[in-house]
Design goal:
The chain has ten helices and ten strands. The chain is an alpha/beta fold. α7 packs parallel to α8 and α8 packs parallel to α9.
């Protein structure tokens, strides 16, 4: 039921029945020209500062994704992993579907990272999955196949079953597979949030031992007041069963949403974690000051 990952610091437990663990999303050049330029110019000071900001804000895991523009992932990803892991002690999520980049990154990565991702696509299963199995690592499985992203929760969960079966046959432990329901923006499809939440609920029912992750911020892309939408989506997603969201906890609204979700799910004894975080923040960072 639990998955153990580790960076340079203490091991981190991912438990569907335990605390929510947040993956910091900010080291991803998609739609981020400043980060893309930093990666292209090997400006590791900027990349490291993004990792440190997220850990200070409460991120439990740091996602490292360098795919974008004309960046040579196989050359840049291991350098980024090396720089980030020297700066923070939390575990890393190595985010690539480039086989050569993944191998190069794992060669320099300490501890036990999370790999993001595989899917039901044969080419991905044939290239990424053997590397994951060889290193005995946990991996994120996207609920999509060769036909793209299914429109319904039932179809997405069917792919999850297929991906898990293939992963187990390849030598990955069943509990080491995390599922990503695939969260799309409501700005393009007003049913996207509902389908994502239904998928999370169904995944939790059919895979009670497995963690559920996903790019929660995707739900608000192109919309105004994104932190408000993201915070509300996160709270509902956690209630439905998501326990390892990928999000930006440098926004206090999002960190509070996750802490509040743990509180309302009865996972925060005497609300200690919520209160500890509240007391650690400056008054200016607390929305409304109440």
């Amino acid at each position: 039921m639990t998955v153990i990952i580790q960076g340079r610091g203490e091991p981190l437990v991912l438990d569907p029945l335990g605390f929510v663990r947040a993956i910091g999303e900010r080291i991803n050049p998609s739609g981020n020209k400043k980060l893309l330029n930093a990666l292209a110019s090997r400006d590791w000071a900027y990349v490291v500062s993004e990792a440190q900001r997220q850990v200070e804000a409460g991120a439990d895991i740091i996602d490292v994704n360098v795919g974008g523009g004309n960046i040579d992932e196989a050359a840049v990803l291991p350098e980024a992993v090396r720089a980030v892991q020297e700066a923070v002690q939390v575990p890393l999520c190595i985010d690539t579907r480039n086989n050569a980049a993944l191998k190069a990154a794992l060669a320099v990565c300490r501890g036990r990272p999370l790999v993001n991702s595989i899917s039901g696509e044969k080419v991905v299963l044939d290239t990424i999955l053997p590397v994951v199995a060889e290193h005995k690592l946990p991996v994120v499985a996207l609920c999509m196949g060769s036909g793209g992203i299914p429109k319904t929760a039932v179809e997405r969960v069917k792919i999850a079953h297929q991906a898990l079966e293939v992963a187990i046959k390849a030598g990955v432990k069943a509990d080491d597979v995390l599922f990503d329901p695939l969260i799309l923006t409501v700005g393009a499809d007003d049913q996207a949030g509902r389908v994502a939440l239904e998928t999370i609920s169904l995944l939790r029912k059919e895979f009670p031992r497995n963690s559920i992750t996903g790019g929660a911020s995707n739900v608000s892309f192109g919309m105004p007041l994104r932190p408000v939408l993201n915070a509300n989506f996160l709270a509902v997603a956690v209630a439905m069963g998501m326990n390892v969201p990928i999000t930006d906890v440098t926004y206090p609204e999002l960190r509070y949403a996750l802490l509040a979700a743990d509180t309302f799910m009865g996972r925060d004894p005497r609300t200690r974690r919520y209160l500890r975080y509240f007391r650690s923040r400056s008054p200016e960072s607390v929305s409304g000051g109440h």
